Structures are given as structure tokens and as C-alpha cells.
Amino acid sequence: xxxxxxRPRPGxxxxxxxxxxxxxAGFIAAPAILAILVAVSALSERxxxxxxxxxxxxxxxxxxxxxxxxxxxxxxxxxxxxxxGVGCDGCFAQIPEIEDSVAERGLTLLPIMVDPAPxxxxxxxxxxxxxxxxIDPGARISSAYGMVGIYGHGDRPSHSFALVRQSGEIxxxxxxxxxxxxxxxxxxxxxxxxxx
Length: 196
Description:
5-stranded mixed beta sheet; 6 helices; 7 strands
């Protein structure tokens, strides 16, 4: 006995094709959206916006000292490191990661965080950091340098650097989406940009 195939109803066939098309569109759209987001992130990661001249400042450090930009620049150029601070382990790990490379280039490293000094000091101790960290209450200095509001952090810096020449000129600014940057990558970019 020969079997006869049942014919699909015309309405069902169209509906299945539409559903199938939407499924395929969803499969295609998700990777496309992800690729666009990655591309936008990569482009904005290269963001080098900031003021041309350094805003002068005098800040108290995590160990109670006072440091001014003028004093730091008296010894040569300075690398300002603005970071999210407490709650970001990578932000603290960044300091010992780059200290040797900063010294090799004759720069003064000035890490700047917005959290209260006792909290910053406790986290610094946890990471074995002996260098004083400058405290920027209310993110006043971070804002003056254009470091606030990058990568969705509305009230604090994300992970940004500014090279300030002894003359007070800002020679290089770099914002990173990552909360830790290997020294070789950071200084590869810095050296290529300004030839320190």
C-alpha cells in the first residue's frame, strides 16, 4: 500500500517560513551587534582626549603627606595614573606593574584615586604598595583632567593615564577599558606616541 504524503496547509507553511526567518535573523544579529560593540570599544579605547595643559594641584596622599604637581615636575616629566580605586584589584596591581618602567624613563609616577585615604591605604598595603597614592576628594582634579565619566564611571576615573611634561604640557592621554594593562603594552604605546 502506497503512502501518500500529507500536504502542509498553506497558512502553516508561510508561518513556519516567517518563524524560521526570524530565528535566522536573531542568530545573525547577535554576533553582528557583538562585533559592533567590540569595534566601538576598541575605537574608544584609543581615546586620547584631555586638556592640553596640566591643571596645577596639591593633594594629600594616602600616608598623610602633601604632594603638588609643581614639586613632582621639578624632577622632570610625570605620569599621572587615574584609576577607579577601592574595589578594583587591577587598579592597585597596576602600580607595582609599571613602577620599574616609569623609573627607567626618568618619570615621576603619581597615582590618583578618589576614595578616602584610610581605604586607599588599606588596599595599598594589601598589594604591598609603599608608594603614596594621591587622594582626590570629590574627583575635582580627575574631572579637571577629563578623567571622569569614561566607560560609564560617572563619579570616578576608570583607568587612565596622562603624561605631563616638565613645562606643564600634557603630551599624552590614554583611557583603557581594562582595569589592568601590562607594562609592555602601556609603555609600547606611550613610547610610540611621544618617544620618552
